[in-house]
Amino acid sequence: MGTLIGLRASVGSTYATAAAGHGLELDAAAIDRAFGPVLRQASPLAFPGLEGPALLEAERHWWGDRIDETLRAAGGGPTPEALRHELFERYADPTLWRVYPGVSEQLERWNARGLALAVVSNFDSRLLPLLEGLGLAPWFKAVVVSSAAGAAKPDPLPFQRALKALGLEPPQVWHVGDSPEDEAGAHAAGLRCLLIRHP
Q1: Hey, what's the torsion of the CAs at 36, 130, 68, 28, to 10 degrees?
Q2: Side-chain-facing half-sphere of 147: CA atoms under 13 Å
Q3: 157-166 and 180-188 helices cross at what angle (nearest 10)?
Q4: Separation CA 143–CA 137 (nearest Å)
Q5: How far is CA 10 from CA 54, 124, 159, 173, in A?
Q6: Three-state secondary structure call for residue 103
Q7: Cα–Cα distances in Å, from 18 out to 32, 51, 55, 64, 79?
Q8: Which of 62, 80, 60, 61 lies closest to 15, judged by CA?
Q9: Distance of alpha carbon 67 from alpha carbon 107, whole angstroms
Q10: pLDDT at 182
Q11: For residue 158, is the peptide bond before it cis, meaning its omega torsion is within 30 degrees of 0?
Q12: HEC states along 162-177?
């Protein structure tokens, strides 16, 4: 998120439209202003020891709380459970996302050169199906998400999981990311890091 793919519409726009379907009138711009701070103050999206249905339930609950906190901060009341569920499912839809220009071509070039590629993301189990739906999954030998890894960047553990899956040592690997957490986590795992900024 922010490196390979981004949203087609703002979080505020999507949340406000969904909320309207549940009888809640909220301002999209207010939601956008609230979302970033809520996300930054949240506990890591990471659940050590969980897998399968228990992991999915923990992911739903974590995002449900973020949705509720965001909508309350934007002037709403308690968030209906059906709306929390709807928004969690909505962001599993590939049509809500877009691949940044040049990403597919670059991944294809790296793959043709024999480079082993993996994703390390502070996201959840919806990511692999999203990458499949967006046509990016074939380029990756591993997809490590924080929720299943049990730790989130800047913790080095997700990077270590990716290294193990690729059968590589830190000096053999570059990490390409877009956030301070990418840089700090990569360095903590002994990786070189390149930060990119999409227009």
Answers
A1: 60
A2: 20
A3: 60
A4: 9
A5: 30, 19, 29, 33
A6: helix
A7: 14, 29, 25, 14, 11
A8: 80
A9: 33
A10: 97
A11: no
A12: HHHHHCCCHHHCEEEE
Mapped onto helix, strand or coil, the DSSP state of residue 119 is strand
DSSP 8-state symbol, 193? E
Nearest residue to 28 (alpha-carbon basis) of 39, 18, 41:
18
The pLDDT of residue 69: 97
The reported pLDDT for the residue numbered 61 is 98
CA dist., res. 44 & res. 27, Å (int): 27
The pLDDT value recorded for residue 198 is 85
Domains of the chain (ranges; CATH) run: 7-96 (1.10.150.720), 97-195 (3.40.50.1000)
pLDDT tens column, 55-70: 999 999 999 999 999 9
Query: Alpha helices, DSSP H only, in the chain?
Result: 11-20, 28-41, 52-73, 81-90, 103-112, 127-133, 146-149, 157-166, 180-188
What residues in the chain have per-residue pLDDT under 70?
Answer: none
